[in-house]
């Protein structure tokens, strides 16, 4: 609540709705480096942690952490890649195309759910030891699974037609 400079409880939602209706400014973004900032409260300065707080999927689906993560990634792609980076970049594939790989098909969903299933070898969701070895194990397994899927199903290569798109999806998974 303090991070958003807002009231506590359910009033936070009402404050956001009021601000949107009246085109008010809610300052949540940090200052960007001078060479990137066009003004205060730039979308690029909005912490990804705020994005995770704003997306309420975990409230509706509390037993599906993967769905919550996927919704945060989709919203992050929309804000950071399509709106913010898209306003800086032009030409080539376009940054708006990079984001579409993360939220317009179920490839990222498949990789993410595979990773969640693999992590269950450590127990229930959130029960894995918080060590770098576990992070390396999970990241390696999910990345190898994703690369195998790209090799096994060539249409996924056509859908994610650039190496940077594939790397983005594998990293998000």
List the helices and strands and how they pair.
Elements: H1 11-21, H2 48-54, H3 57-60, H4 65-88, H5 95-103, H6 107-119, H7 132-152, H8 154-159, H9 163-172
Describe the 3D structure.
The protein folds into two domains: 1-93, no CATH class; 105-173. It has 173 residues and is mainly α. It has helices at 11-21, 48-54, 57-60, 65-88, 95-103, 107-119, 132-152, 154-159, 163-172. The mean pLDDT is 78. The protein starts with 10 loop residues before the first helix and ends with a helix. Pfam families: MCR_alpha, MCR_alpha_N. It catalyses: coenzyme B + methyl-coenzyme M = methane + coenzyme M-coenzyme B heterodisulfide.
Key features of this structure:
9 helices; 173 residues; 2 domains; 61% helix; mainly alpha
Structural class: mainly alpha
Give the overall silhouette. globular
Query: Count the strands?
Result: 0
Helix content: 55-70%
The main β sheet shows up as: none
Can you write the helix and strand succession as a string? HHHHHHHHH
- Unreliably modeled segments: none
Number of domains: 2
Protein name: coenzyme-B sulfoethylthiotransferase
Keywords: Metal-binding, Methanogenesis, Methylation, Nickel, Transferase
Enzyme class: transferase
GO molecular function, one term: coenzyme-B sulfoethylthiotransferase activity
């Amino acid at each position: 609540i303090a991070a958003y400079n807002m009231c506590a409880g359910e009033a936070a939602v009402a404050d956001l709705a009021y601000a949107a209706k009246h085109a008010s400014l809610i300052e949540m973004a940090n200052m960007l480096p001078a060479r990137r900032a066009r003004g205060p409260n730039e979308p690029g300065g909005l912490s990804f942690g705020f994005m995770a707080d704003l997306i309420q999927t975990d409230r509706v689906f509390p037993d599906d952490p993967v769905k919550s993560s996927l919704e945060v990634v989709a919203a992050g792609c929309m804000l950071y890649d399509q709106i913010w980076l898209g306003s800086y970049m032009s030409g080539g594939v376009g940054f708006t195309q990079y984001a579409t790989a993360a939220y317009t098909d179920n490839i990222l969903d498949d990789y993410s759910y595979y990773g969640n299933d693999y992590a269950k070898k450590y127990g229930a969701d959130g029960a894995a030891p918080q060590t770098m070895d576990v992070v390396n194990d999970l990241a390696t397994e999910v990345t190898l699974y994703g690369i195998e899927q790209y090799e096994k199903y060539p249409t996924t290569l056509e859908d994610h037609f650039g190496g940077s798109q594939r790397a983005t999806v594998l990293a998000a998974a």
